[in-house]
Amino acid sequence: MNKQKIYINGRFLTQRTTGVQRVAIGLVKALDGILSEDECLSSKYEIILICPSYAIFTMSFNKVKILKRGFLTGHLWEQFELPFYSYNYLLINLCNVSPLTKKNQLAIIHDSAVFAYPAAYSFIFRLWYKINYFVTSRRSKGIITVSEFSKKELAKFLSINADRIEVIYPASAFKSIERVHQRNTAHQKPYVLAVSSLNPQKNVRGIISAFHHLQDININLFVVGGDNTQIFKSIGIIEDLPNVKFLGYVSDERLTDLYQNALCFVYPSFYEGFGLPPLEAMAYGCPVIVSNRASLPEVCGDAALYCNPDEPANIAEAIRKLYKSDELQEELIKNGFEQLKNFCFRKGASSLLSLIKQHTPTA
């Protein structure tokens, strides 16, 4: 019996790893795991992760095949060579952008930020993404997103029926582990952890402003992401506060240490399609403070302390509550481990396989 070929857009293997890329990697690994355990499925489908020839990666799979093809790079590869090499077979796009000429495809669009927060992006960036989302939502066989909130937003901004959009929740790539009760001696002073880019919707400015209200307690703020302190200063995000430390990009090992030893993780974002970092913090037993906006209440449930992202004093109040209450910290840690059970890449991969079955010929 001939196998049904399914192609996955592997351009994400050439990109810096952020939340979107982590989700793509997690879903592909989960698909590979399911196919490895289900002989019936693996006899019907051949999953091919197709990527540019210059892609460098260390991953290996049991059932998912990796195929390097083409001469172009970036968007040019994705728009011109990818649809050629995937022929008429179903193509799965996991990271927002899809080839415009392809009809036989499914696309995951993670959020509607280019519509909801256009000022956060360059004119060319938001124009391209708006065009791509608009065309893809009408030409492709199906649209997938990562939360019920994002589903409603995409239906609104793209003027499409919400019934055309499926929700597949992502998950944390980090396994749940017990919190380190004895703090690392390198972190003798308590600190709040923030993981954020320079994007204004992430509200780094609000976190910094909150620390103006916390100068009476002995606590640091560690900000991971962006590039460095000079860049944050150049765009007016920070002032010189002695208890605010900008760490730039860090390794996963360093991030693990920071999550495990933090007083709490704070994420007062204005807009998220999902919000992966809070789940990552929960996986390491780190109490979480998030904004009461967008998808975050849906994702975090009762496993987070909520704040108003427009009011730095309210963010500070939430931090102060956790600083003063070991009992509240333990409650959020416990609830966090429970909340994580709602999100699983294997469950997401199973949902994706169900959609693949719907949109491929019956063997």
From TrEMBL:
Q: Which UniProt keywords apply?
A: Transferase
Q: What is this protein called?
A: Glycosyltransferase family 1 protein
Q: Does the keyword Transferase apply?
A: yes
- GO term, biological process aspect, one: lipopolysaccharide biosynthetic process
What are the Glycosyl transferase family domain coordinates in residue numbering?
A: 183-338
The record's listing under Pfam families reads:
Glycos_transf_1
* Native organism: Pontibacter arcticus
Query: Among its keywords, does the record have Transferase?
Result: yes
Gene Ontology terms for molecular function:
glycosyltransferase activity
Q: Do you know which InterPro entries this protein is assigned to?
A: Glyco_trans_1
